[in-house]
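Our preliminary data section would be incomplete without showing what the modeling component actually yields. Below, a chain of 88 amino acids is followed by its predicted structure, encoded as tokens that our downstream tools consume directly.
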Amino acid sequence: MSGGERQRTALARALINEPALVLADEPTGSLDAASSRSAIDLLWKSTLANQRALVIVTHEPAIASRANRILRLEDGRLFDRTGELKSA
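Predicted structure:
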């Protein structure tokens, strides 16, 4: 089974039981451009349609730009668009 096939299988397994929270670590890492768009579209449509929370870890700005909130981890510190987040 190719890396792309394994990636798509993992995506299907993650969504099949309709979890309230979907965690996706580089979900398009081993996919070509067309498969990547298809996978991200599936994740977004599935989570929106079923009111699920979706957390994606990615290095792809195009994928991150679709999110409602973007957090960036840099040198062990967490940032949002306004700056560094402080612990409570």
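Helices lie at 3-16, 33-49, 61-64. The radius of gyration is 14 Å. Preliminary results of this kind motivate Aim 1 of the renewal.
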